[in-house]
Predict the structure of Low specificity L-threonine aldolase.
Amino acid sequence: MNLTSDNIAPAHPAVLEALAAANSGPARPYGHDEENARVEALLSDVFEKPVAAFLVTTGTAANALSLAQMTPPWGAVIGHEEAHVMHDECGAPEFFTNGAKIVGAPGLDGKLTTETFGGLLGRDFWTPPTHVTPAALTLSQATEAGTVYRPAEIGALSEIARGRRIRVHMDGARFANAVASTHASPADLTWRSGVEALSFGFTKNGAMAAEAIVLFAEDLIQNLAERRKRGGHTWSKGRFIAAQIAALLEGGLWLDLARSANARAAELALGLEARGLRTAFPVEANEVFVWLPAALHEALKARGAGYYVWTSESIAPERAGGDGEVIARMIASFATTGAEVQTALTEIDAALAVAAPRKRAPRPLGAPLF
């Protein structure tokens, strides 16, 4: 049982075939090749409008470079207090923005709301020149809690941001899973709802190492090529990044893979609930967060089960855990099969048998206590 992350999944065979095809001869360097042009055209089709795309190999680079385009050193990037950019980028957004402040706001189920975002903006500490100026809003799609924003939610947050001249960025490391979950169009989940830049993740969804910075606002294009180069994220043989993305976009493979991952996560969640285990967050994409009693957690770890122990302050009160329980984050990838889900549930059954308290036989009347 290994449900630690979708990062452990292999590259999809179509990606490896595309890499081999891209390796068949010479091509222009630094992104001026046919594969990069094809990816930009494919992305324009996906989003139903012409877009600019800058390809990188890590989500950290995509997020940090995007936010640096939006945020001056004296600015603030506002996001959910448990967002990936807040805690899991090792300070890269601060580094690439030359020192901008990352400010977190609360929100149940890993999501910002108009109340939490507007409430933060309404506080009295945004006074220049002694304080940073709100410059960018970043939304994780799907969130660190495995939940997803609907177009109306994004639009409401973007409207508040627009009123304060705040740019809107989306960390889409699992954007494909969010599209598959909501059944909304990629356009409705991004630019039609006010998003100006998207870090479109492919690595977690079948690529070897490929992410796209997709820009919907033309003014954000200026000097991003130089910023990417200066930051060390411009590949001379950029066709090998583009080939991976093109293989996933063509024919809608990226959505097929995300639908499969989401379906396996839903199967896992149903199996866990059938065993009396409760989830900490709604299961809306490919992540399942489940409360494990301490004895079950120890029994699973003893059996070598793979999952992350999680902590969060954004759990709704009605989904709070009991004494001694831990949150296990279990993720299904595009490569996770139904058989593997059943294997995981079988492992949990075996661990439950070990963890269940042993019932003592009733003591006969008159028997000694010791």
Remarks:
- The chain has two domains: 10-253, 258-355.
- The first helix runs from residue 13 to 22.
- The first strand starts at residue 52 and ends at 56.
